[in-house]
């Protein structure tokens, strides 16, 4: 089953379920997805489920051995794309180098940098793509992107199960569940990244503390009672130690909480675009105590002023 909606050349929503293609049809599918088939082992076969909307992509794909060369896709690829092998291994080439990944690994790359994907045996993988601004853990982008990481198996499995459930859920254009489901999956992506980074550098104190603090803030910021004091308690560190760890990141714990709440409020406002607005409800669901405090935060935020 395939459903898609487009508006003025922009992909609004596309959903493909239980797609099974062979040879010419399989090659055409790759072409539509922005790839040319350089070589393959006959017969070329593809089985896939795929959901895409705007700058978000979730796909599960199994295919026979193939080498794919990146070409200009019909719609821009997401800024950040994470590959999660499910069966066997794949090789991903970008402008920065080549990466071999197998079951248990994860690899995040910039969508614009993709050059080729190669498999020598039948293999399967998940690909999850989204905007970089939606993943706070990428504040330290060089540490998370273009590197093969091995996350905590339980965190990875939770992500795979959640992504599978998404693809098994019938969704339509404008479905109100989509924004919430997307946010949940992106938070799981961050959790997977954090566990992988922690496993790689267990004593990289400041950066790991900031990454963990960022994850906690993303999880708790929607509660108006959450504060920097609670953050220090959860991290089991002093306020001064937390501020020292943040000093090299160009922000402060308080600023992170405020900007996260502003991002939540912006998402809530976008989700209700065209409908009736209950600003008090939106403010409370984003972690503000009132609509007035939310407006003050927007008025004093440089990032918000830059986009208004």
Uncertain runs are 1-11, 304-308
Question: CATH-wise, what's the superfamily of the largest domain?
Answer: Jelly Rolls
User: Taking Cα atoms only, what radius of gyration do you get, to the nearest Å?
Assistant: 21 Å
Class computed from helices, strands and strand pairing: alpha+beta
Kindly state the mean pLDDT as a whole number?
85
The percent of residues in helical segments reads: 40-55%
Strand order of the largest sheet: 1-2-4-5-12-7-10-13
State the domain count: 2
Estimate what percentage of residues fall within beta strands.
25-35%
- Can you write the helix and strand succession as a string? EEHEEEEEEEEEEHEHHHHHHHHH
Could you give the distance between the termini?
40 Å
> What name is given to the CATH topology of the largest domain?
Jelly Rolls
Shape: globular
Which CATH class of the largest domain applies here? Answer: Mainly Beta
Number of strands: 13
What CATH architecture label of the largest domain applies? Sandwich
Q: How would a crystallographer describe the biggest sheet?
A: 8 strands, antiparallel
Number of helices: 11
Architecture overview:
This protein is an alpha+beta fold and 308 residues long. The protein has two domains: 2-172, Jelly Rolls (Sandwich); 205-306, Arc Repressor Mutant, subunit A (Orthogonal Bundle), CATH 1.10.10.60. It is built from eleven helices and 13 strands. The chain has helices at residues 24-32, 141-144, 153-167, 177-200, 205-220, 228-235, 239-246, 253-271, 279-285, 291-300, 302-306, and strands at 2-7, 10-22, 35-40, 45-53, 56-63, 66-70, 80-87, 89-94, 97-102, 106-110, 114-119, 123-130, 147-149. The strands form two sheets. An eight-stranded antiparallel sheet has the order 1-2-4-5-12-7-10-13. A five-stranded antiparallel sheet has the order 3-6-11-8-9. A hairpin with a 2-residue loop joins strand 8 (89-94) and strand 9 (97-102).
